[in-house]
């Protein structure tokens, strides 16, 4: 079985020593890292799209709840439990999956762009950083941060229109018959710009969020392994540490980027549209700074859970997608 990128980084960290020595003795007994060049790209994209779609389906209700909290339909302060009860009372369980078809349709191209940009950038930047003489931990963290930014920008080319349509379906359920109808009406009345409403804020939200996430994920793993000690014979521990590191990184990113996410959602959903400045003024007038953090609970839970699930799925997909000759040699 091939070694994941995260495991290879852990192995290097454990044996590198203070003098910047090369790979540790334990690393020599472990299979090689599954890098971008080692992947069967077709299998990687197909398996990734299938598994990530399943994860997205499980976490979608939290996204619906967060959106309703960020764009309340009345003047009262929205509350998570009351809002969830209202969705159930009005639409039943199906209410938590409004817009999911549109979101799922965008998952395949968006995930393909994200994973391709992430892996290719990580490989290129990591190699360049090592050639420049940077220590492996610094090179790994730098490559992860750069890959996160590049992947976020690439994916938003697809995700922004998908977000606009799916969020409109969540909030304005009586205005649109479905995803295709929403697409037609947005283009008819708002033009292509309507599909990319909030694109700039999305980049401002997700580019730094991804940079912080991937960098802190790498650092968190190193920190945890230093505390508990690395055991290459127990793969369950490896997965547990990956999941915990991802959850920590996801939760932190949720808190840091929450105000921008609220602003982005308002700009994409509200019929009046408007500039970022006008949206911020409206939020402050409506509920002060706390209004920018509406939906933080569901978003924090969703991003932490999503991060832990996604990263373990992601590493699993990479192992399954390693070219056959690598598995035979490893």
UniProtKB/TrEMBL annotation:
<protein>
    <submittedName>
        <fullName>Solute carrier family 25 member 44-like protein</fullName>
    </submittedName>
</protein>
<feature type="transmembrane region" description="Helical">
    <location>
        <begin position="194"/>
        <end position="215"/>
    </location>
</feature>
<feature type="transmembrane region" description="Helical">
    <location>
        <begin position="235"/>
        <end position="260"/>
    </location>
</feature>
<feature type="repeat" description="Solcar">
    <location>
        <begin position="41"/>
        <end position="124"/>
    </location>
</feature>
<keyword id="KW-0677">Repeat</keyword>
<dbReference type="GO" id="GO:0055085">
    <property type="term" value="P:transmembrane transport"/>
</dbReference>
<keyword id="KW-1133">Transmembrane helix</keyword>
<dbReference type="Pfam" id="PF00153">
    <property type="entry name" value="Mito_carr"/>
</dbReference>
<dbReference type="InterPro" id="IPR018108">
    <property type="entry name" value="MCP_transmembrane"/>
</dbReference>
<comment type="similarity">
    <text>Belongs to the mitochondrial carrier (TC 2.A.29) family.</text>
</comment>
<feature type="repeat" description="Solcar">
    <location>
        <begin position="139"/>
        <end position="223"/>
    </location>
</feature>
<keyword id="KW-0472">Membrane</keyword>
<keyword id="KW-0812">Transmembrane</keyword>
<dbReference type="GO" id="GO:0016020">
    <property type="term" value="C:membrane"/>
</dbReference>
<feature type="transmembrane region" description="Helical">
    <location>
        <begin position="44"/>
        <end position="65"/>
    </location>
</feature>
<keyword id="KW-0813">Transport</keyword>
<dbReference type="InterPro" id="IPR023395">
    <property type="entry name" value="MCP_dom_sf"/>
</dbReference>
<feature type="repeat" description="Solcar">
    <location>
        <begin position="237"/>
        <end position="320"/>
    </location>
</feature>
<dbReference type="InterPro" id="IPR002067">
    <property type="entry name" value="MCP"/>
</dbReference>
